[in-house]
Write the structure tokens for this entry.
Amino acid sequence: MKRKPLAIAAALILIGSFATPASAHVSALPGVSSAGNITDALTVGKNNTLFFRVGHGCGLEADIKHPVTKKTIAKAGVDTFGTHAFSLTVPVEALGAAGTTAPRPAFIPGFRTSLVKNADGTMTLTWKAISRDFDSPNGPDGDVATTSFFDFGVRVAFAPSASGKKVTFPAKQRCLVDVAAVKRTASTKARGATTISVYETWDGSTTDEVKDNNSRSTAPSVTVF
């Protein structure tokens, strides 16, 4: 039986306001079809490859307070903190006809991968840097002049039920922020240096968190025709 091709839009439908740091984003890029063609006409079945492009680290749009020490961390440019981990939630429509075909992550030197099956049937795939030296795109020192990008590849199996739908892949970046030690004074308690996580979340929800203050912009998506 001849399989019906699924034409997938090349552009990611993303993204918050272009006037603020939240305009930086994660992009979904069609990749390689199950027939091995570099094309945006992917097919139902296995071995369709998509790439998710991360072009920035995590930024703060407002000052936040450390959840334990309550020390204020000042807002900074969008490229201040490199991405230490990147998570992608793969929807059921991209897990094969039975919803059980696990996504296959691309091997990326310097990163380990993990896969978790969620209660709603989706699967969350995470790439995590083995050290701060591999944080993307700008490493632990947060070079704001860096303009490099990074692609995370995943191989999925689109189910027939995906035809005619926009399929979304909620994504989250986790970045590490170093908080300096505080010496004891007459009015301040001594606190040791620590590291906390902040996030850039692309899932389209309206929920906001103290360590995730980028307004949780639209999730990356592809449209299946």
Notes: The chain has one domain: 5-216. The two ends are 19 Å apart (CA to CA).
